[in-house]
Amino acid sequence: MTFPPIESSPLSFPSVRKIPNLDEQKIWLSHQNIYAERIVANWKDWTPTYTNLSVGDGTVVARYVQIGKIVIVHYNLLFGSTTSISGSVELTTPVGAGSTYVSFEDAVGVANYRDAGSNRFAGTVTMRDAAKFQLWVHGAASTHVNFTGLSSSVPMTWTTSDILTFSATYEAA
Fold first, then answer.
1. Which CATH architecture fits 44-171?
2. According to the model, what pLDDT value does residue 13 have?
């Protein structure tokens, strides 16, 4: 009795795999590289609108990539001599978020705040609403870590060469 090759069988054998030859492996790797290059090449700049933050002569790098409905954001602000924070910082998203986010409740990223000296402070990025991020610093005013809004003196007195940076990932509308 002879049996047809597994590849032509109408039955499914998930534990049996055909081992690709070298040419098939090269084609597969080539497709993976093309896919990766397309993702990297699609990063775009965005110019957020701010609440309680004046960039002044600071240097901003604000970039994002959208893959399907997933939006990945990177933001970096190097403070200049006229950059200032006057209260709890909010900034617009590059792409509107889905309606499932609850105001102030949904953490979508991490933030880092670096004092021009040597101090670093950790924070969280939440969705303010479908069109805005809100930035928080982690505070230690109680037994557990809490969120505290940024201000001109929280988590430090902001000055030239301080850095505010964050990354976030969220679902687009």
1. Sandwich (2.60)
2. 45
Among 46, 39, 151, smallest CA distance to 93 is for 46
Q: How far apart are the first and last CA of the chain?
A: 58
Condensed to tens digits (0 to 9), the pLDDT of residues 37-59 reads 555 558 999 999 999 999 999 99
Residue 114 has a pLDDT of 95
pLDDT at residue 39 in the model: 54
Q: Is 57 within 8 Å of 80 (Cβ atoms)?
A: yes
Round to whole Å and give the CA distance between 150 and 22.
Answer: 56
d(CA 108, CA 113): 17
Q: What is the pTM of this model?
A: 0.74
Q: What is the maximum span of the chain, computed from C-alpha positions, in angstroms?
A: 85
Which two three-digit tokens encode residue 40?
A: 């990297």
Q: Would you mind telling me the total number of residues written for the chain in this entry?
A: 173
Q: Are strands 44-45 and 70-78 parallel, antiparallel or unpaired?
A: unpaired
Distances 62 to 21, 66, 92 between C-alpha atoms, Å: 44, 14, 11
Answer left, alpha or beta for residue 52, where phi above 0 means left and psi between -120 and 50 means alpha: left
